[in-house]
């Protein structure tokens, strides 16, 4: 069995049990507190790494051990990809493109202060209303995401207005609209837009009250109406709404009048 090309350790990882952990094929419970699971990233050059070791040593399109070019061209003939076989506690995934994950991690290493904003975008993409609210409602101190990543304090207006430099300058609203995450759309409109309250469905206002979500637009002077943000192509979130989403929303809910955009 191959060892990690970086640390030379076994391609395994010990994780803490939560008390309800059930072992699966390829895993073993060493004691009541930890479980040993596979942790093997096999690159197309033949080198193997622990996932964290690969992140720590990663070089764009080159294997950090043998320096061989590990990038290939996708089926589209345009985009690069880095295909690997990933064996972890979730099982074996073959021909998995990990380039987006590696690029994301490299970016966060260079700009750790943006980790909170990028977590916000991911929660919008997943449609996790509670996670979006909790992230925005923190007390400004360092917090953890997914139980591990440290989120550096960031002004709430900066989080809400953050636009992804790796993803066409999409805002959280752009992402929620293109992902058709209706509950997140309503939450963002309530918190960070000037949409009149009577335009919100009663159930949305009731859910927001139960969450404790407050309207921040107009309270934070630096917070723009999130509906006015434009992506790299000059499109607002409303312009990206699919026909099915447009049928669910009056399109005027997602957009603002021209004079407000240019004001």
What would the keywords be for this entry?
263 residues; alpha+beta; two-stranded antiparallel ribbon; 11 helices; 33% helix; disordered C terminus
Describe the structure in your own words.
- The structure is a single chain.
- By secondary structure, this protein is of the alpha+beta class.
- The chain contains 11 helices and 10 strands.
- The strands form 4 sheets. Strands 4-3-7-8 form a 4-stranded antiparallel beta sheet.
- A hairpin with a 4-residue loop joins strand 3 (40-43) and strand 4.
- Helix 3 (115-126) runs antiparallel to helix 4 (129-136) and helix 3 (115-126) packs parallel to helix 6.
- The longest helix has 12 residues, at 99-110.
- The termini are far apart.
- 27% of the residues are buried.
- Mean pLDDT is 84; it is low at 20-25 and 258-263.
